[in-house]
Amino acid sequence: MAIGFKDFLNVDYAPGMPDLVKRNAKKRKQDIPTGNTGESVERTDEALSMAQRRAKSRQMKKYKTRLAMGRKKQAAKMADPARLKRRAQKAARAALAKKLTKGIPKSELTSARKAEIEKRLDKMKQRVNRLAKKMLPAVRKKELARRQK
Questions:
Q1: 31 confidence band (pLDDT: 50, 70, 90)
Q2: Positive or negative, the Cα torsion across 56, 61, 85, 117?
Q3: Confidence (pTM)
Q4: Are 57 and 64 in contact (CB under 8 A)?
Q5: Residue 149 has what pLDDT?
Q6: Which among 123, 136, 79 has a CA at the least distance from the CA of 97?
Q7: Second label for 71, Cα 20 to 30 Å away, from 28, 63, 135, 147?
């Protein structure tokens, strides 16, 4: 890993706070995977192996509090159009998956069956997009209702 200019900057991540808080803030800042570390990260659409899933599980446990804080911050804001579109697509995929499994919940399916359903859904991209477009107003309405609480 190459050392960059920003590695030499002396930044106070938590001004006016005790040393312990500052140190933790600095550690959090350094731990965040930004993707611009100079390492090329290959993105594949392959399913994770069991070892990779366990490693991912450990990683997510490590970032649990950070993710919770981010979720809390995001909950206070109105979702942007891109996020609403993603939610609509997710809802559309879920609706089609429910149709394919004849109403059986995803939690009761085996991992092989889930993978098979996901593969079939990937082939139905046009249909998912059409359904997502139709579902978008409902998703937006749901978000507005959530914000008015």
A1: low
A2: positive
A3: 0.59
A4: no
A5: 72
A6: 123
A7: 135
